[in-house]
Amino acid sequence: MDHIRLSPRLQMVADFVPPCACAADIGTDHGYLPVWLLQNGIAETAIAADIHAGPLANARQSADDYDLTERFRFVLADGLQFPDAQDADIITVAGMGGETICAIMAAAPWLQEGRRLILQPQSKVAELTDWLWRSGFTIEDVPVDEDDLGAFSADDGDEVPVVEGEGQIVEGDLLIHGTGIEDLGHMAHFKHDGSLL
Predict the structure, then answer these.
(1) CA dist., res. 157 & res. 174, Å (int)
(2) Do 177 and 120 meet the contact criterion of CB atoms below 8 Å apart?
(3) How far apart are CA 8 and CA 5, in angstroms?
(4) How far apart (Å, rounded) are the C-alpha atoms in residues 18 and 65?
(5) How much is the average pLDDT of 87-109?
(6) Gap between the terminal Cα atoms of the chain
(7) What is the C-alpha to C-alpha distance for residues 112 and 96, in angstroms, rounded to an integer?
């Protein structure tokens, strides 16, 4: 069976996902990211969630095309508002505006209980980073481009090892990962209580 190839934007997100039992891709669209995570042994199972039936049908087709349907759960839902969303230990949200990502996270307070988030906002990055900081999340690593946009990874504030960036430069994407603002371009470092290090 052939392996799926990701766009540079989705590959950057995928590269930040650590090995996990269950990865949930919120706003999954075609389901390419969870297919890649399963094929590469990063995730044991995956949840593909989308608010629209069409993209979810596309994700089902992708899973079927790569013979992975049995390891998927497909959910028609608004963000993380579905039963057993808490089964995911890694949550990816890519390609949405920062304000939409904030709304999804604000509606799921259980995220504070220890989930790792890999977020790739397309806009309103400052709004998202501010919300994360005010909510006790910290940013672990951020590959940025010359426009300071990219993807980042956020965590619930528990101490976790910092994931070293590999100097990835990706146009139009900011990646948030883990606990603590460790590298957001040239921003300061923060810890869970919000004090400056």
Answers:
(1) 20
(2) no
(3) 9
(4) 25
(5) 93
(6) 48
(7) 21
- pTM of the entire structure? 0.75
Provide the strand spans (E) within 7-108: 20-26, 43-50, 72-76, 90-97
Note the pLDDT of residue 143: 65
Rounded to whole angstroms, the Cα distance separating 38 from 3 reads: 10
Whether the per-residue pLDDT at 150 is higher than 60: the answer is no
- Tell me the C-alpha distance between 196 and 168, whole Å: 26
**pLDDT (0 to 100) of residue 116:** 87
The single-letter DSSP state of residue 148 is: S
- Measured CA angle at 150 (ends 45, 138), to 5 deg: 70
Measured in degrees and rounded to the nearest 5, phi and psi for residue 78 equal -90, 105
Contact predicate 25/56, CB 8 Å: no
Q: What is the pLDDT of residues 13-51, one digit of tens each?
A: 999 999 999 999 999 999 999 999 999 999 999 999 999
Query: Which residues share a beta bridge with 196?
Result: 190
Query: Residue 53: which of 88, 33, 73, 29 has the closest Cα?
Result: 29
pLDDT above 90 for 60: yes
Token couple for 55: 């993209």
Q: How far apart are CA 20 and CA 141, in angstroms?
A: 19
Please name the residue that has the structure tokens 């650590």. Answer: 18
